[in-house]
Amino acid sequence: MRFARMLTAGALAAAALLGPAAPVAPADTPSPRPGADGSAPTEAGTSFRTATPVEQGQKATANGSSGDYLYWVFPADAGDRPTVRASVTLPEPTARHGASDWRIDVYDGLRRRQPCMYGMQSRTAAADAVTVELSCTLRPVRALADPWSDDPLPGSYYVRLTVTAQPEQDQGLPVRAEVEAVSKRVGGAWAVDGTLAEPLVPGVSADERRKEEETALDWSSGWWSDRWVWTGAGGLLAALAAIAGYVLTRGPGRPAGVPPAA
C-alpha cells in the first residue's frame, strides 16, 4: 500500500508539472501585439529603409504598379514561427500581354534573406488570372544563435513583394497587394539557454527601442523556457523510480517490536 501511495503521489506531481508545459496552440494564431491605433497600413515602402511597419495579425494593403518593389516590416519574438501571406490583385486580363511571375522574400533585421520551410514563395499568374496567392513559413525564431549562423533571431522581419518576370508592355500597370504575417508558438522544442542583449531592430535608437519594447513589441525572450519544466519533471520521475526500486529490492521490513536475530 505504501508503494502504491508513493507512485500515485509521484504521478500527480508529474502531471501538475507537465500539464501547463504543453498548451495546444491553434495553427497560425496571431501574436497579441496590436498596433498603436489598431488600424492596418494602407501603403507599402519601396526599400528596406522605408518599409511600412505592420503588426502580426494585421492585413496591410497597398496600391502599386507592376514592377515596383513593395516592402513591409513586422516584429517576431523567440518561439514564433512566422508565416507571411500575400495576395496580389492583378490588372484586367484585357490589359495584360501574358503571364507574370510573382515572389515574396523575407529578410531578418540584418537583411539576411531567410529561407522558407514551406509555402508557395513564388508563383506564376496566367494571362487571364485575377489574383495570385503567395506564402512563406519561416523557421522558428531562436532566442540566441552562433555568430556564423543565419538562424532567425528576435527583431524586425522585412517582407518584399515584387514581380520577377512579365511582358515588357505590362510594366507599370496598376496592382493591389494585401500582406499578413501571423505566428504559431513552437515553445521549448526550439528554446536555447540564452538571449540576445537587444532584438535586431536596425535604424532605431536605444530610447525608441525601449519605448517599443514597453508598448507594442513586448519582447519576452529570456533564460526561462518550458524545457526547464520538462527537465524538472524528468528529474522527479527518476527520483521516484529510484525510490521504488529501493523499496522493491529491500523486501518487507521487520515488524515493529521484534528484536533482530542474534
In a nutshell, what does this entry contain?
The chain is of the alpha+beta class. The protein has 3 helices and 10 strands; from the N terminus they run H-E-E-E-E-E-E-E-E-E-E-H-H.
Secondary structure layout plus pairing:
Elements: H1 2-18, E1 52-53, E2 59-65, E3 70-76, E4 80-89, E5 100-107, E6 113-114, E7 122-125, E8 131-137, E9 155-165, E10 174-185, H2 206-217, H3 227-250
Parallel strand pairs: 1-3
Antiparallel strand pairs: 2-10, 3-9, 4-8, 4-10, 5-6, 5-7, 5-9
Helix pairs in contact: 1-3
Largest sheet: 6 strands, mixed
Q: Per the principal axes of the C-alpha atoms, what is the gross shape?
A: elongated
Beta-strand content bin: 25-35%
How confident overall, as mean pLDDT? 78
Distance between the termini: 30 Å
Give helix and strand order, one letter per element, not per position.
HEEEEEEEEEEHH
Percent helix range: 10-25%
- Radius of gyration, in angstroms, nearest whole number: 27 Å
Low-confidence stretches: 16-36, 204-209, 211-217, 219-224
Oligomeric state: single chain
Class computed from helices, strands and strand pairing: alpha+beta
- What is the tally of beta strands? 10
Task: Please tally the helical runs, counting DSSP H or I stretches of 4 or more residues.
Answer: 3
